[in-house]
Each structure stands twice: as C-alpha cells, then as structure tokens.
Amino acid sequence: MRRLTARLLPVTALASASVLLTGCFAGTPQSAADGGKRIRVAMMNPPRSGLSPLTDDAFKLSRWSTAETLVTLDAEGDAVPALATAWQQQGKTWTFTLRDGVTFHDGTELTAQAVERSLTRAATASPKPRILDGVDLTVKASGNTVTVTTATEDPLVPQRLSSPQLSILAARAYRGKTVDPVGAGTGPFRLTKVNGTSSASLDRYDGYWGKKAKAPGIDVTFVPDGTARAAALRSGEADIVEAIPVSQAALLDQDLITEVPMPRTNTLYLHTEKGVFTDPKLRAAARAAIDAPAIVKGVYEGRADTARGLLGPALPWANGLRTPLKRTAPGKPGGAAITIGTFTDRAELPEVAQTLQQQLQKAGFTVKLEVREYANIESDALSGAFDAFILSRATILDSGDPAAYLYSDFASQGSFNISQLADPAVDKALDKAAATPTGDARRKAVIAAEAAVLATDAAVPMLHERVIQGDAAGVVGAAHDPRERLLVTADTQVK
C-alpha cells in the first residue's frame, strides 16, 4: 500500500475547512472514566435509513463492530465462523450451529429463534436486502441450530449470510415497521445513541463473547465534505477518517495516510448488439488504443492500480490464476463515429472520458462524449443508447464473491448487461462459475469466466480504485478493509 508525501495546506483551504468543521466534534469526550481514550471517527456518508441493517447503512454497523453476522469472510473471500461455529449443506438446506455464550447488548441471549427472527425479517422485507435479490430463502430454528433453505441449490449461502445486511439483532430491534439497532447488536461495541444524520456514539460492551475491546468507546461524526474530513485529521479533531479525496491526500502527513485497494474496477463497456462495436475487430481496436497507465497517472495522480483484468488487487488470488489470452487482431477504425457516455457522480470519470476521447481519436475513431448525473443516464446506458460507457463498478458486491457481478454484467440474461453481450461461451463459463462450490475450484472457474468475457473485448478494464484512509499518529489497530466491512475493531485503540 502506498504512502503519500506531505505538503502544507493552503491558508484559504484551511480556513474553509475550519468553517465546515466548526461544532462538528465539539464536546466529544476524548478520555473515558477508566483512563482509556475513545476513538473519534469522521465518516463520509450519513445514515440514509436510520441505520437499518436491511439497507446500506448496515455497513456502518459492521465498521463500528456493533452488529455481527452468522459468518464472516477471510482475505480470500471464504466463509469463517462468527455467531455460527459450523455449518453443513444437504441439497437446498444449510444447517448452522450457533455459538454458545453470546448475549445481545440488552442482555438477552442469542438463540436460534432470534436468528430466525432476524433472517426472516430480512428475507420478507420489501425491498429485500441486496444480497437476497432473486433468492427465495426460509429459516427455521431448532435447538441450537438454524436451517436455511433456498428454492434452488445455492453454494453461496454462507457467503450471503456474511453480508452486514443480514446482521443478527435482539428482539427489541423489531418492535415496529423499522429496524432499530440501538442497543441490539452482539459486537464488542454497543450502539448507545444516534443523532439523526450528524453523529452516533458507542460504548464498549463488557459482556462481549470474544476479545474485549481495547477502547472504551467510539464517537462518530458524519462529515460529507472531503476537505473538512481531511482537515479533521490534520487538526487532530478526528482519530480515523474515511475516504480522503485524492485532491486532499497529498496535503497531509504521509505517515497518516493509507491507500487501500478497492474491489472496484473502472471499465469501458462496448455495445456489442448494434453500431460500430458489433465488429469484434473494432472492439479490439478500441482496446488496443486505450493507455490505462496514462489515465492512472494523469487523472488519478498514480493513486489507482492499472487493470490486468476485471478483478483487481482487492482479490489477491485473482492474478496468480490468470493465463495469457488469445485476442482478436485490431481492425482499422477509419473515422468510425462513436458516442461514449459516463456520469458526474464520481468526480474523476468525466476527466477519464476526455482522456479516452483523445486516445480513441488518435487511433482513428471519431468520438463524442455525453456526460450526465448517474440517475439521468443509467436507463440510457442499460438500453444501449451509447456505443460505449465508462463505469466504476463494484466487483464483489455483498457476498465477497465476484461470480454474481460477472453474471449481472456479462451474461446474456444479466440484469446489468450494458454491453448487451450475448455470447454462448461466456454464458457457459458464467454458469459453471456460479454452480461450482466455494474454494479454489470456484476461484479458478471465476477466472475462466473473466477470460471468456475479456476475449470478446466487450469490456475493457482500465484501473482499480483505491480508498484513502487517515489514521492519526496515536491510532493502533484500525482496519484497512477493501470490502469496507471493518474499520474499528476490538483491537483498535488510541494511545
């Protein structure tokens, strides 16, 4: 992971950030009664649904180590024990054995009935948590086990149950139509207070079943402005800072910055159903024209990784399984006119589009750009309105497994198939990957599916993004998690 060089913040920027920060961290206690220091965290996005675990807010609960799931994932993406200690599959049914001695933050015990309640609420929610999209799942408690049954045989059930959106909470969380996680988790920190979209507080839970947290608590402030988050780290008002913008990173002390590879790939999708890129030789010409290292250097200031495939360094097993590809020879564009679409919501993409325009025009294409907000361009992208589309795409979604992303984006029946790809060899490889049991065999099948997609040149991966995290000098044990599921753990403390 790359460390960044330090510079001084311009006076005007510092003044602006100071105004933004006024009152953000005021009154936040640094030291608890037992002498330990509470951890002050500046997070980018405020809650969107009152911290309901059935939404993306669940990832905040996970990053604060307050809500837990039956299983978690190791670095390879394989399921390992958490609230469940063991599991086994029999056809469509998986049986999970629960950990003994676990209590919720309100003092009630973790039981099979509690797990059934939480998972059933998720499975019957409208809309469902994203991890259960298209999955028909039922749960039944029996003694110290729960059985999870799906409509079709699903080798990914344990990985699905690792999603923070399927956290197990106490009965008190489900008293109304919404789900309230305050005081209802099982993790080393107990959520005690949520102040709307401005802040949240957590205290150490001394009844935790695992390792006791080293810090007495966490004080979270939501700071959407990136300059203000960077200023909070610089001024010492925050101990851990999420998602520092590239523009601010070089202004900070290099020893406070860590760049974490993300499971996110910036890809140029080429429309294969109609227009210029129905010709595989012209798709190959576009692929050959793209200088991805120049984009990484010029647009991302070197703070991204040049793509070697659709899956990047956040999946450390991927590159070692790849073999050389047989590629179609490029044809001659001859001035062929194409329109490239992208969106403004991710600040770098319009500049990426301009760089691609120059590279493709140099290769002989005539290129027009169309840039809008994502909400106003997604439907056109999916309907095939553009010859090409630039997208920053998460590659492992919620299960920690990339097969779902590959199917969604490149299967002939995929729901997010911007390239409109319909290739029998790709479909066959994707089906095999989806059906293969987890572990080394599935990883090899996934890479074979990736190779089948790349051989069509329907998608040209350019780079893999990184997230920049700030940790103050006294912080020890903060997590740097590519999946953004962990941040403050039981081992995190401020010395």
Automatic annotation (TrEMBL):
Record's keyword annotation contains Signal: yes
Entry coiled-coil feature ranges: none
Protein name per Swiss-Prot or TrEMBL: ABC transporter substrate-binding protein
Annotated signal sequence range: 1-32
PANTHER family in alphabetical order: MONOACYL PHOSPHATIDYLINOSITOL TETRAMANNOSIDE-BINDING PROTEIN LPQW-RELATED (PTHR30290:SF65), PERIPLASMIC BINDING COMPONENT OF ABC TRANSPORTER (PTHR30290)
Cited Gene3D superfamilies: Dipeptide-binding Protein, Domain 3, Periplasmic binding protein-like II
Source organism, top-level taxon: Bacteria
UniProt keyword annotations, A-Z: Signal
Domain Solute-binding protein family: residue ranges: 80-415
Organism ancestry: Bacteria, Bacillati, Actinomycetota, Actinomycetes, Kitasatosporales
PROSITE patterns: PROKAR_LIPOPROTEIN
Entries under InterPro entries matching the protein: Peptide/Ni-bd (IPR030678), SBP_5 (IPR039424), SBP_5_dom (IPR000914)
Alphabetized Pfam families for the sequence: SBP_bac_5 (PF00496)
